Amino acid sequence: MTEFILILISTILVNNFVLVQFLGLCPFMGVSGKLETAIGMSMATTFVLTLASILSYLTYQYILLPFDLEFLRTISFILVIAVVVQFTEMVVHKTSPLLYRMLGIFLPLITTNCAVLGVALLITNRAEQTFLSAATYGFGAALGFSMVLILFAGLRERIAIADVPTPFRGAAIGMITAGLMSLAFMGFTGLIRI
Amino acid sequence: MTAQPRIWDIPGGIHPPQNKAQSTARGLEQPPLPERLILPLLQHIGNRAEPLVKPGDRVLKGQVIATASGLFSCPVHAPTSGTVSALGPAPYPHASGLAEPAIIIDSDGEDRWIEAQPVADYRSLEPLALLDRIRDAGISGLGGAGFPTAPKLAARPDHRIDTLIINGAECEPYITSDDMTMRHRAPQIVAGIEVLMHILQPAQVLIGIEDNKPEAIAAMRAAAEQHPMQVVVIPTKYPSGGEKQLIQILTGKEVPSGGLPADIGLLCHNIGTALAVHDAVLLGRPMISRITTLTGAALARPTNVKALIGTPIQDLLSFAGLRPEQLYRLVMGGPMMGFTLPDSAAPIIKTSNCLLAATHDELPPPPPALPCIRCGLCAEACPAELLPQQLHWFALGKDHDQLQRHNLFDCIECGACAYVCPSSIPLVQYFRAGKAEIRAIEQQHSRAEQSRLRFEHRQQRLQREAEQRELERQARAEKAARAKAAREAQASRQQTETSPAAAPDLARIQSRKASTLSPEQKQLKVAAATARMALQRAQKQLAANPDNTDLQAQIPKLEQAFAEAQQAFEQATAQEAP
Amino acid sequence: MSIILTAVLTLLVLALIFGAVLGYAAVRFRVEGDPIVEQINALLPQTQCGQCGHPGCKPYAEAIANGAPINKCPPGGETTIQALADLLDVEPLPLDGEHGEEKPPMVAYIREAECIGCTKCIQACPVDAILGAARQMHTVIVAECTGCDLCLEPCPVDCIDMLPLPVTIQNWRWDLPRPVTGSARGGAA
């Protein structure tokens, strides 16, 4: 039990994938304009990340390892992720056409999201991996990504109507804010070691 | 000393300097009869009244000169006797300075009343009859917002009114009209309240008065002594006289967002409205005058006057000794919620409770607004517990969704937030602009929806007409073709026949020419044509939506139906042919 | 050698399984039509004037759903462009001048002294806002007129004027106060 709590704290706060490990910055900057879009994107990414990391783990554990095919892991993980994203895209298109329209190109871009592939690959690097710990790792990564994305979207909405000096308007102030958030999260370093 | 019932406190609020002593020194005065009176047809929230008189008519004091149109409308009465001199756009007391249609009366100086018809015993009347009286007397709320009183009293017939609140708070600085009314007309106000009680049958009646009016409190207490109503003294704070705020102070209940006090069993009326009800029911006099405060440092004799509705403002100001060279800004209403009058030729209307003739030092021009420093003092001052700072950011960014999510429409525009703002940001103006924009967009949407519906109906109508024409054209073409075939057959037969047989042939020809379709044949022909139309329509739809599987299944059926109908028709006509 | 074979076979099998899953999902989660068109149409002003180059607002909505630029509607003006930009999450563009200028709201007015009762304007009005019949007086129902000015051209005696809607106390609006000293505001960042 403790192990899972530690995994969650590590992936959400200490080794946050966006602000500490700097993965998945593309949707982080691109979809954080409005809060509703950010919430939709974070839910989609959570679904994809969790499912993809579970399936990747299973593929690795029960198909690749028994046949000594570890070298195939990158390509097979990409295959898994692409399928999951495509599946998610179809579900979103059916259930919420407005969200589908708002996410636009960023939904299929989850396929190339380095955070997703990164989580899948990092799971294989960890020693003493069980199915449950892999799933927790993937889910925690997704939660961390979602939390940061939503926080950043909230900040950007307020910045959009604030009195920002002209040289800083637009992407510049966004980057600065992201950098400050990253500094804040670096403060968690050394809290736990996973 | 009666035990004071429990009172609550409202959140926020401010304590601006009261400036009320200036206008209470001279009691209640009567200005001279004006030479000309301007009676606008719209003096409150709602619809314009419809004029009953035309230029040249003579009118008596209290005579109806415009009738109510619809539910939210009040009739207008002549405030004095005289002649109607004009009917048309006239100056109107509004921030925009736009003119409004009005009836202009030249007074004849005699001030002759029509015959008054007081109600002998109003307790014997049904509440509905009393409401008619109140409406016919043209009473609208005198508190400032000016909602027509009769529909307000009848607002929620399914809701019980438990508490009737009478608003004598008058929280805004400078204004003392309610104060003077209570001092000098307390028994009449109480009588008017009793009429309201008869209509509403509330469980309790509370009269709220701020503690800065000791004489008014004493007068009202004395008048209400043997009556089932309570005078409740509340601490002086702006804006405790707002309807929702007074309700919260006296009962601790909050009116739900976007709702009315009647939703929680409460109704609030101004003491001036109660006085007008007394005059209408017990004296039979319509609403033609009100008590208005004339104040401000530019006046030599600030006072309260019993002014006739329609009196031009400049007449009242000169009665109070206006010093024009000192006048910097003329405000109708108080310094917090009033508006600057662009034109002093405008008249007093039913909602005009105060005229503030301010000098430059009294109401200096506001300093230029500075950027918001996010101090949060505005949120502390807001009596409606809103977030003025957030509303102001959203109004700047035109974020209408967020404005509505932060309850912009619950703002009562009291101005407490702008009063405390250290950056002098004109917050209320942002909120008014935001509200106006949201209302305009909603109106645009509903109009666009209406236009869309009309357009679609028109398209359907045109399609129906086109089909009908097609049907008729088909029918005519077939008839022509048949007639042509018949003529050709007859012509060819004529050539092969010898003359002796001409006569019987002639008869046959004539009979054939005269033969038309029998009713059943006609029916079958129409059925065949209809089936063909249905088939063609389905085919056209299929061409537009090729994937529609329902249509694909329908078409063979329609084809079969058409073939059958056509066959039946041909069979029926073939039987005719020899 | 065998390891390569195993690798290829494994990947092939994986791809086949996943392909089957996706195929099933494609059928199960099929989306008919495009509800976004309805949402776009709800934002357009419904004047059916044709200034955007499409025969009505619904066809223009369908065109936008297929990628047409959102800045072609003069009666909608800046507010409509902004609303469309918010809905579709694209950049708001300035109004395309070649399709007309943004004008204040107008209504048509028939000068009755010159009307000959030909019904050509009635047939042209897309929302049936003109009342009249053959050889009877024609008049515009002001509450329904959208100001599209499609009736001006068909009139053979040119007796229709476009007049701006009058501002009265009931539709007068407070303006936003002037911007804060020093900075030019209006949608920063």
Task: Note down, in words, how this protein is organized.
The complex is a heterotrimer of chains A (194), B (578) and C (189). Chain A has one domain (37-185). Chain A has helices at residues 2-14, 25-30, 35-64, 73-95, 97-103, 114-125, 131-160, 171-186. Chain A is an all-alpha fold and 194 residues long. Among the domains of chain B are: 21-34 and 120-358, Rossmann fold (3-Layer(aba) Sandwich); 377-441, no CATH class; 517-578, Methane Monooxygenase Hydroxylase, Chain G, domain 1, CATH 1.20.58. Chain B is 41% helix and 14% strand. Chain B is built from 15 helices and 17 strands. In chain B, strand 13 and strand 14 form a beta hairpin. The radius of gyration of chain B is 37 Å and the shape is elongated. The N and C termini of chain B lie far apart (116 Å). With 189 residues, chain C is mainly α. Chain C contains five helices and four strands. In chain C, the strands form two sheets. Chain C has a two-stranded antiparallel sheet with strand order 1-4. Chain C has a two-stranded antiparallel sheet with strand order 2-3. Chain C is elongated, with a radius of gyration of 27 Å. At the B-C interface, helix 12 of B face loops of C.
In spatial order, strands of the major sheet of chain C run 1-4
Which series of helices and strands of chain C comes N to C?
HHHHEHEEE
For this structure, what is the CATH homologous superfamily of the domain at 21-34 and 120-358 in chain B? NADH-ubiquinone oxidoreductase 51kDa subunit
For the residues shown, what is the average pLDDT of chain C? 81
Number of DSSP helices of chain C? 5
CATH-defined fold name of the domain at 21-34 and 120-358 in chain B: Rossmann fold
Question: Hey, roughly how much beta strand do the residues of chain B contain?
Answer: 5-15%
